[in-house]
């Protein structure tokens, strides 16, 4: 992986997971995106999540709650037989 790719992955992971990620070069010379850098690796970049991450998660929860109010829950019958579950076909002439 290149250094640019490691930085890109760290940015995407940080934004998606809401935690800090680091782009590092390992002792063996590989470039990686990690959450907790190990001893002996060189930290190339530290990417922190955007400030509104928690707010966006909260707004998603609110959207789900509103949608649940709009669409009432259907009752499911789990004791039905396979014949009852088959779609009914119109009577043939």
Structure overview:
The protein has 93 residues and is α+β, with helices and mostly antiparallel strands. The protein has one domain (3-69). The chain is 40% helix and 16% strand. It has three helices and three strands. It has helices spanning 3-17, 53-70, 82-85, and strands spanning 21-25, 31-34, 42-47. It has a three-stranded antiparallel beta sheet, covered by helices on one side. A hairpin with a 5-residue loop joins β1 (21-25) and β2 (31-34). It is elongated, with a radius of gyration of 25 Å. The N and C termini lie far apart (68 Å).
List keywords for this structure.
alpha+beta; 3 helices; single chain; three-stranded antiparallel β-sheet; 93 residues
How would you sum up this structure in a few lines?
It is built from 3 helices and 3 strands; from the N terminus they run αβββαα. By secondary structure, it is an alpha+beta fold.
The largest sheet, given as strand count, sense and whether it forms a barrel, is: 3 strands, antiparallel
How many distinct folded domains?
1
Tell how many strands the DSSP assignment holds: 3
β-sheet strand percentage = 15-25%
Identify low-pLDDT runs: none
Shape verdict: elongated
Terminal residue distance: 68 Å
- State mean pLDDT (0 to 100 scale): 79
Number of helices: 3
Q: Regarding quaternary structure, how should these chains be classified?
A: single chain
Secondary structure topology:
Blueprint: H1 3-17, E1 21-25, E2 31-34, E3 42-47, H2 53-70, H3 82-85
